Amino acid sequence: MKTMSTKYLGVVAALGASLLLTSCSAGAAAKDQAPASAEAQTISISNEFGAAEVPADPQRALGFYTTDTDILITLGIKLADQQPIRGDNGFTTFPDFFPQEALANVKPFANYPEFNYEKVLESNPDFILNGLSYDTEIPKKLNPIAPTYNYNAFDGGDWREHFKKTAETLNRTEQYQAWTDKYQARVDEIKGKIKAAGIDPVVASVSFYDGKVGVDCYGIACLVFDDLGLKISKLARANDEGVTNLSLEQLDQLKDIDEAFTTVGVGEERSLLQTSDKLNASSVWKGLDFVKNDQITNINMEMVYGSPSGQMAFLDEVEKALLP
Q1: Which helix (H) or strand (E) holds 116?
Q2: Where are the domains of the chain?
Q3: Domain 12-171, CATH 3.30.1330.50 — does that match?
């Protein structure tokens, strides 16, 4: 899934009453009778994609993309008993780095790259979290099904900004902060290990597609690299496109990379960087240190798209790669 460039839409959140009060006097009486700690039953949200009264405590929430489902779990929101997953690249169930206990009784259904609105409707959600609003037709179809929080999680920015905004909108800042604290603790732990090991590697997110090797900062890779204070290959941010594509004649530009990270589909144990006949026919490629030493870490492609469990899992992969 490619990142779409579209301006992220701010969301105005406010607590709403569960019932419309029919008169000022009735409202005053209700206020007198209600416990001071009573919480509103709905949250009013409004943005360019529409307005909705979202349940303050959803019982059957649905994440329209897998990253949305992971966010729902992290924020402590109860799931509908069916949730979408990718329908390509070998996916038949949820990513293995997701919280499996929360998904134990949840049935997956394919919802990407083709969207299955019939299955969404069948899931009978009372709330939908949709991060795919780069496609402006999706909110139009989801809004009538259930109250939906629509936003563009793939606008090229740090996904954690959207995560934070979602938590604030849904009154789940405590759960957001708990994840943030846990993540930062792991970052600090791994940084300490790297310092103690006395290493200073150059890392990169690398891919091979259409006959070219790409070095980029797509997804979460550079976020984690930056958090750990690692040196990132200068090729990753060499232009405004966010990727440097190299022909087979330019592979010597990769010589400074110590560890490469690349994505694979489900069940793929080795990546194209390791199995491509075109690359392996290049003496320059085979002579690169990270290739000779097999310093190529293959990660589940779903990690890179930006979600709490994905970011934590990628952090773990970096630790294993650099500190075996």
Answers
A1: none
A2: 12-171, 180-322
A3: no
Closest CA to 97 of 66, 128, 123: 66
Provide CB contacts within 8 A for 33, sequence distance 6+.
none
Alpha carbons 55 and 77: distance in angstroms, whole number: 11
Distance CA 180, CA 308 (A): 9
- Cis, peptide link before residue 113, omega less than 30° from 0: yes
Q: Which residue has the tokens 């006949």?
A: 277
Give the tokens for residue 231.
């040196």
Helix/strand/coil for 173: helix
The position carrying tokens 């530009």 is 253
What value, to the nearest 5°, has the Cα angle with vertex 212 and ends 260 and 312? 30
Torsion-angle region of 129 (φ positive above 0: left; ψ -120 to 50: alpha; else: beta)? beta
* Multiple choice CATH, 180-322, 3.40.50.300, 3.40.50.1980, 3.40.50.700, 3.30.70.580: 3.40.50.1980
- CB-CB contact of 155 with 118 (8 Å): no
C-beta atoms surrounding 99 within 10 Å:
14
Beta bridge partners of 28: none
Q: Which pLDDT score is estimated for 127? A: 98
Torsions phi, psi for 231 (to 5 deg):
-80, 125
pLDDT at 40: 67
pLDDT means per 10 residues, the chain with 324 residues, are 37 32 36 42 92 96 98 98 94 95 97 97 98 96 97 94 97 98 98 97 96 94 98 94 93 97 91 95 96 96 96 98 91
- Those residues with Cβ within 8 angstroms of residue 157's Cβ, 6 or more apart along the chain or in another chain: 8
Structure-token pair, residue 54: 């979202």
Cα–Cα distance, 138 to 111 (Å, whole number):
12
